[in-house]
Amino acid sequence: MNWITRIKNASERIKSAIRRRATKSEISASKYISCHGVPTEKKIIEENNYVCPECNAHHFISPSQRFTMMFGENNWRKIDSPLVKDPDPYKWVDTKKYKDRLKEAKKNTGQDSAILSCEAKINDIDVVASAVNFKYIGGSISMDESENVLASIKTAIEKKCPYIFVSGSGGMRMMTNMLSLMQMTRMTIGINELKKNNLPYIVVIASPSTGGLQASICSTGDICIGEKNATMAFAGRRIVEATSQTDLPENFQTVEWQMEKGQVDIVLERKDIAPTIGTLLTILLKKNSVISTEQDETTENTQSLSKIA
Ligand SMILES: [Zn+2]
To answer: CB under 8 Å to 111, separation ≥6 — which residues?
Structure first.
């Protein structure tokens, strides 16, 4: 074998070793998803509220799927909110026009903004809930999103009912710059109105919850529930590592770590979030108890929830 043949054979081996990466459309069309290092059937994960039954990984769930899971199918009603006249005042262009990104996000998610809100019931208690869709430009927050939050808070105050906010956002939207940062204040003022009206405000931290949303309405809940293994942070791990020059624990910025530091009250698996909110609201609103105290386990849970409340 001469050197030309050896090089040719080596290049063939390299070519076959490098696998072509699947495109986005191929991934979404596939029946499988990569989880715990192996291809796992999407259907199995979907049927388990988008939680892997093998490794308990909590996968992405859209706001409408989450509302259906929390409140039951057709047991929640969308709250419409006004949209701003000009969502792109800076005419922002990066690798794409922001205007085109918005169109694409609306088409892909079927939502008008990154936040979907609804009126629903838990434990027969009226609630208003909002959830962020990470697939809508990384769940980033701009004017339309804060309008949605404010419309929901207004509904909660009118109906005198609690407000639930489910996060899942990369932070504020850089394409609208200062105008998006201003929304942190507007939404926080909205939450203050809820508190003035003595209405409970419950935050659910789903992954990822980072940046400006974390620094505003996600940190002002009366009760903060972390969804298992969710990331909750302001600045990212690499930035903290680089600026503090320290070794950070493996679970740094997970909700479990934040609970140790007092930022989160309780960490729950996805399936347990809605029943726990129901129990907490029953306690907070001093409703006639629908909590069974027959079983020791339930009594213990109720006692620990009363402590949180
Ligand atoms: Zn898995």
So the answer is: 63, 105, 133, 136
Is position 25 within any domain?
no
Same domain? For 192 and 54 the reply is: no
37's enclosing H/E stretch is none
What separation in Å is there between the alpha carbon of 33 and the centre of ligand 1?
Answer: 9
Q: How far apart are CA 184 and CA 210, in angstroms?
A: 13
pLDDT along the chain (309 residues), means of 10: 80 73 75 87 91 92 96 94 94 96 96 97 95 96 96 97 95 94 96 96 94 92 96 88 88 94 96 96 80 50 61
Residue 75 lies in a domain: yes
Residue range of the domain that includes 54: 30-59
Number of domains in the chain: 2
Find the 80 Cα to ligand 1 centroid distance in Å.
36
**Residue 52 Cα to ligand 1 middle (Å):** 5
Picking from 306, 288, 304, 290, the residue whose alpha carbon sits closest to that of residue 123 is 290
Between the CA of 61 and the centroid of ligand 1 the distance, in Å, is: 15
CA of 235 to the centre of ligand 1 (A): 27
Same domain membership, residue 53 and residue 67: no
Cα–ligand 1 centroid distance for 209 (angstroms):
21
pLDDT of residue 38: 87
Determine the distance separating the centroid of ligand 1 and the alpha carbon of 250, expressed in angstroms: 19
CA of 276 to the centre of ligand 1 (A): 25
Tell me, in angstroms, the distance from the centre of ligand 1 to residue 37's CA: 8
* Single pTM value for the model: 0.85
DSSP per-residue string spanning 87-117: S-TT--BSSSBHHHHHHHHHHHH--SSSEEE
Nearest-angstrom CA–CA distance, 230 and 211? 14
251 part of a folded domain: yes
CA of 125 to the centre of ligand 1 (A): 35
